[in-house]
Design goal:
Blueprint lengths: L1 E2 L7 E4 L2 E4 L2 E3 L2 E3 L4 E5 L6 E6 L3 H20 L2 H17 L1 H12 L3 H22 L5 E4 L5 E9 L3 E4 L7 H13 L3 E4 L5 H14 L6 E4 L4 H9 L6 E5 L2 H14 L2 E5 L4 E5 L5 H13 L9 E7 H16 L18 H16 L3 E4 L3 E2 L5 E2 L2 E5 L4 H4 L7 E7 L2 H9 L3 E2 L1 E5 L3 H10 L4 E4 L14 E2 L2 E2 L12 E9 L4 H4 L1
Parallel strand pairs: 10-11, 10-13, 11-12, 13-14, 15-16, 15-23, 16-21, 20-21, 23-24
Antiparallel strand pairs: 1-2, 2-3, 4-5, 6-7, 8-9, 9-27, 14-26, 17-20, 18-19, 22-25
Bound molecules: nicotinamide-adenine-dinucleotide.
Nicotinamide-adenine-dinucleotide (NAD) binds next to helix 7 and helix 8.
GO molecular function, one term: oxidoreductase activity
Pfam family, one: Aldedh
Organism: Lysinimonas soli
């Protein structure tokens, strides 16, 4: 690794990939007087010193986005779609670079980083394909004498705030929708994973996105940056992915200027295994759903809820599969990498301690793995008497909790007994139970006999404390568009007069 510059934050070379470490504002990479370190969670080493954006940078990025907005929205759909296709081609050329950068700063295994890359590129392509297919409607006015033309317009300059757990997917999914809709954007990276967002934005720059259309800010003081931008009424949209607490703060800030807001927030996903489920399928999918990204996923199985008639077999097989997981550096042949930070690892120690103290039985794992790096054993706990204070906590960790129920009714009631409503999972061989039970599950998404759901063609998002709005599918682009109606007076006799 060579850090070419720290204070001017120019570039860093990592595994032969050169990555920009500055802010990207108005088409230029900029340095800042101070920097902050990015750490490789697999070994605790500093990977890079990133430019640390402040309030003046935030204002400058907003100015650039506002100045570029009128020209960008005027681009014809075909020209904008062509630009997206160029950017997509560049992303594909850089696939391995981007995947490796993700492994370095997030710790996820290379195979997971490659899958995340592919899904992100697919989302970007999905939005490119939507650009030229946005249609309006035309109708006669109800009382005659006018026509109703309804169309959509870009919301306007948008602030996109993303978390560290899916460093590429989160930015590609938001920026793809916003830019396709004709909005200019200021993206605010997570301080743990700014390098991935830098390589993504560099691909957009190289493809020819005009200055000011895309802006990128890194910072160690997110609250200061976002509150500065949110206070300005020229910002018309905030799209946030992260914790429910921060989402709620942003909604309060959005209220002041009635800023349009989309929120992808926390989850408490129930993974329900009914008595007629294919147990081996359920075990395999539960392992992916729980331990992918070391459990640090909003859609992870947070409560595994199993019918008592199959609980013994399910639990035995799930514990065996958990014990077989290989943990280590994401570049080695492993199934699971480190957690994101030493703070996160220490939190897990306390979490597992609290669960055991509340009566949970530890079946496997439950210890941190000696460093360097922030590793924790894949852990399974059996819960017989749920502690209300812990049962609905978002674990966000490689820690699985198994609960037992005696009926489908009890399973659904317990599944719904949460303030969150993002993703739920249901395993049954009976199609009728699957349909009826999934309709009763109060979640934005239900995986039936599968533990992974993200797809560009699907509307991703949650209800209740899990958020507002959807990303992807036909709905995603409309988060960045608003309806516009033209009432056009006509003389109904005109056509017959001449
Ligand atoms: P977080 O809320 O702490 O941080 C998310 C982003 O917000 C980061 O960029 C962070 O720098 C920024 N941020 C932090 N405090 C802020 C503030 N006061 N004002 C403005 N920005 C602020 O969340 P995290 O720990 O990075 O991510 C984990 C959470 O994200 C979990 O709750 C998880 O469920 C959720 N998540 C949800 C989805 C989804 O699609 N629903 C996807 C991934 C993660």
């Amino acid at each position: 690794m060579t850090i070419l510059s720290t204070s001017t934050a120019a570039t860093v070379t990592l595994r032969a990939h050169t990555v920009r470490t500055g802010l990207y504002i108005d088409g230029e990479w900029r340095s800042t007087p101070s920097t902050f370190p990015v750490v490789n969670p697999a070994n605790g080493e500093i990977l890079a010193e990133m430019a640390d954006g402040g309030e003046a940078d935030a204002r400058s990025a907003l100015e650039a986005a506002v100045a570029a907005q009128d020209d960008w929205r005027a681009w014809g759909p075909r020209a904008r779609a062509n630009l997206f296709h160029r950017a997509h081609a560049l992303l594909m050329e850089r696939a391995e670079t981007i995947a490796e950068i993700m492994v370095l700063e997030s710790g996820k295994p290379l195979a997971e980083a490659r899958s995340e890359f592919q899904l992100s590129a697919d989302f970007f392509l999905w939005y490119a394909e939507q650009i030229a297919h946005l249609h309006g409607t035309y109708a006669s006015g109800s009382t005659g004498g006018y026509r109703v033309v309804a169309t959509h317009q870009p919301v306007g300059p948008s602030l996109l705030i993303t978390p560290w757990n899916f460093p590429l997917l989160m930015i590609a999914r938001k920026a793809g929708a916003a830019l396709a809709a004709g909005c200019t954007v200021i993206t605010k990276s997570a301080k743990e994973t700014p390098l991935t967002s830098a390589v993504f934005v560099e691909a957009l720059h190289d493809a020819g996105f005009p200055p000011g259309v895309v802006n990128l800010i890194h910072t160690r003081s997110s609250a200061r940056i976002s509150s500065t931008i949110m206070a300005d009424p020229r910002l018309r949209k905030v799209s946030f992915t992260g914790s429910t607490g921060v989402g709620s703060t942003l909604l309060e800030q959005a209220a002041k200027n009635i800023t349009n807001a989309s929120m992808e927030l926390g989850g408490d996903g129930p993974f329900v295994v009914l008595e007629d489920a294919d147990i081996d399928l359920a075990v395999g999918q539960a392992i992916i759903c729980k331990f992918r990204n070391a459990g640090q996923a909003c859609v992870a199985a947070n409560r595994i809820i199993v019918h008592s008639s199959i609980a013994e077999e399910f639990t035995r097989k799930f514990v065996e599969a958990t014990r077989a997981l290989r943990v280590g550096d994401g570049f080695d042949a492993v199934d699971m990498g480190p957690v994101i930070s030493s703070d996160q690892r220490d939190r897990l120690g306390r979490l597992v301690g609290d669960l055991v103290e509340s009566g949970a039985e530890l079946l496997v794992g439950g210890r941190e793995i000696a460093g360097p790096g922030y590793f924790y054993e894949p852990t399974v706990l059996k819960i017989t008497a749920p502690d209300p204070a812990l049962a609905n906590e978002e674990l966000f960790a490689p820690v699985a909790t198994i609960y037992t129920v005696d009926s489908t009714e009890e399973a659904i009631r317990f599944a719904n007994d949460t303030g969150y409503g993002l993703a739920a999972y249901l395993f049954t061989e009976d199609i009728s139970s699957a349909i009826v039970a999934s309709e009763r599950l109060e979640f934005g998404m239900v995986g039936i006999n599968r533990g992974i759901m993200a797809d560009p063609a699907a509307p991703f998002g949650g209800i209740k404390a899990s958020g507002l709005g959807r990303e992807g599918g036909h709905d995603g682009i409309y988060e960045f568009l608003e309806p516009k109606y033209l009432a056009i007076t006509v003389d109904e006799t005109t056509g017959t007069k001449r």
